[in-house]
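Problem 3 from the worked examples.
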Amino acid sequence: MISVQAAISRFRRDLTIGALVRSGLLAGAVACIMFDLVTGTGYGGAMMLLGIGAIWMVLGYRSVQGSRLSADSPLLIATGRFEEAENRIDAALRSFSLFKPAKLMSLHHLAMLRHAQRRWQESAQLCRALQRQRMGTLRGLSKPSTLLLADDLMHLRDLPGVYEALSRLHRQRLNLGEALTMLQIQTEYLASIGAFEPMLSEAGTKVQLAELMPAGAAARTQAFMALAAIKTGRTVLASWLRRRVELLCDANALAAERPLLAELWPALSAPNGPADNIMHGTH
């Protein structure tokens, strides 16, 4: 298994080496041009420039090969093939890359793998190492990395850290998938700090968004909303949400995974109410 500290150290070292090689090749190209201008030969400098171009192409090709090594990692992680994903990511991190984006993606894939393995602390370390870097052409990687960090910190019960990550995300434009992930994390965070009223703001919209989530995430989001409904005295809404959760997952397993929800099922005994009133969060 890849050591997180070793991976981060290798990542930083490779970025430094890559930057030095790029700078050296660029300086060499400029020197070749200046050589021809000074000597007026127009031959020696051109030959050296051609050689530098050939070196750039070879190193660029190797960099592309390295980036392809971990390209399938997200699919492997999603299908539970963790060992194969680990081997590919390790090979990508060990390979030389002239360009920074390939290394950034490899480190992000490793953070995704550690998150899937429920190694929250290691995943959070990797995400923080990523966010210390200038993303350049991979600026879009900042949002999924921050979402991953927020979820890691939620599992670690680092609530100030979760708040900071969510605050950064609020200042960015998210796509639908990112917005759904943020809603899931934010709902659990608000429940953890006892901010139950904000959880039920626009309850109908949030329930509709939850329907677009995978079953487990949808169940957790609506379960926390049901808890908020209990805490704010909205028993009809709570009962309705509880039944939706029970259709999606094993309530006992969910309560065991999220102890905050343990009071949810024994406490709920309210009758049903009209669906329209429920969707608007009314009593």
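Problem 4, a separate protein:
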Amino acid sequence: MTEDICLEGVLAEACRQLRRDLRRIRTNIRLAKKYSQHFMRSCRIGYAFIRELRKLDPRTIFELGAGAGFLTRFLAALGKPIIAVEVDPRIVNILSTNTADLPHVYPLLGDGIFLLRSRFARADVLASNTPYSLTGPVLMAYIRSNMRAAVLMLQQEVAERLVSSPGSRGYGRITVMVNYFNEVKVSASFMPRDFIPSPKVSSQLVILKRVREWRPEHVLLESFLRCAFSQRRRLAKNVLRRCLKYINPHIDERIIIEILKERNMENARVYELDIGTYSTIYEVLQKYS
């Protein structure tokens, strides 16, 4: 109970600080479109991140796209080390100033996606108010990082795609890739007015919990899915046979027909196959590699 009261006090101060910082940023900072910068302006966002991160109990948080440190101050309420990475050299100085009173926050100028992929950070949980133009690369970098969990603010359309069912419009390569490695949950929703500048779309908080580690051989899965979903509405048995032959000419393409027959999916389209079917086909692909 005492811990909860203390946390509430820290979060309340972070909210007050956010409102003070927002007044300054409107006059002192010109955001760069090339970085897809949309800073949080609603304290609800900070509270939502904290609610989900407390359940994950991180040892160290890697914050990608920390911006001016608005979300960082909320994350710092957990008292865990935070590696706050920002790629914009103009903003990182403001980030350092805004978090100077937080000894467990480590501001860093750098490409967060590159650092994730290279496993530079000794962190176990990723948190990000994700730049929307970089959503795909961020998700793939997280998968390759082998961090055990992530809490990401994503545009609503992408969040819906991650939990789409086979056969639906949103079901695609990124759905299969993310769900193959993670348990996916969609949490709170936010309106464009909750950010500055306001994006043209609504946003949702997504929680990823890793269920499978990335290994070098998973490059095969990535290549296979990219090939398959390039023709997502065609008959799976034809597309997948061509994709397997493209990746490894020595694979007996009849294996695909057998797998689809066993699952009563012989006449299914690429986008109608479930993740379990893709997983089974990938296991066959591994055996021939």
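Solution to problem 4. The chain has a mean pLDDT of 90. The longest helix spans residues 2-28.
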